[in-house]
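Sat 14:20. Reprocessing the chain from the morning session after the first attempt stalled halfway. Input below, unchanged.
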Amino acid sequence: MYPLCWAVVEGETNDSWRWFFAELRKVLDDTDGTSMTFISDEAQAVLNGVANVFPKAEHRDCARHVFAYWHNGFKGDEMKMLFWNVAKAYNKADYENALAQMEKVSPAAVDAFKSYNPECFCRAFVKKDTRCDVIVNNMAETFNGYIINARTKHLIFMLEDIRSALMQRLVLKKQEIEKIRDEICPRVRIKLNKEKALAAECTIIPSTITLFQVSYKLDTVTVDLVNKSCTCGKWDLLGVPCCHACACIFFIHEEPEKYVDACYKTETYLKIYSASIPPCVGERYWPKVDLPIDPPPIKIGPGRPRRNRRKTPHEHPKILGKLTRHGVEMSCSVCKSKEHNKRRCPDKDKGTQIPPQPKRKRGRPRAMVVQHSRDDNGESTQNMHHQQTAEPSTIGRNGRDSHKRKG
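Finished this time. Tokens:
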């Protein structure tokens, strides 16, 4: 998440968004948005602004917002899993298979899913050349939480807090990546290692030195190392070699790191964070002018000004970042049925309930001590048991009492 620009406007209107995108276009080399991807929560003002200023840019809808509307009619964990299986499919074959699985459970769910225009939020239909497989706008929500305290302040102090926080963030991110001795970024390294581990399960049939047919489980795909493409679509969209590509790269005795897209290299990361936000002196050192400056007209709405962001219907109203249990399938703790809970279970009085786990006692466990004693023949014996008190043992070496004086 790299912040490019931010602004303060009177409201999220068509004019304000059009002005914001017009200012953004002035500082970017891409004038028509050919190589750009926008993700929003389907706000009409954002849609109009992108369409007017960047007519050739790709605009994706947030899948999480689509799921919130779609899930109202189709509850349960199974439907939730089916939705994300369809949305996260990297190719049309997997997309159709996931839709077929959803149709077996509920044909109405498939019709409702298609009514939300899947081409705008499913990975199988997005552009491949942007190296972006993101289908949710979590980054925007994260940034809103990042500046939540600054948004409650006066306009000038709010902008100063945001500028100071981002100025520090750029330096910290650069210092973190300078400690890395790897040629690719750490999170990309984790993804690549997972794909390299799965490459051992692939069977390779070479067609040329750069074109291969790969069999993985019950699937057969084609890998082209020259175009950095795979039939599964994951390499094309993400820019990190998939398990099929890693197997082919190992076949020609090369390393998959060589085929990772340049945007994930640490060298590129350092170039991105080479720029910095200049510092600014305090208000006391600002130049003073005699020009009369009137503030812009302020439209005060009814009621108390909103401080927190608008929460989703199923988000916890008091605890930040916690969701309610809406949509989660409950099961009876007695008979494990999903039709009722423990209170209405017909078998609750039959003694079939699973006994609860014993609670762990509070405090530290008692230590094991060894006590020496003498038997009838005068030989020393060891008795191992738990110490009953917190006092130290008075038994010394050879079973003698350490409190007694030597004779």
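The chain has a mean pLDDT of 84.
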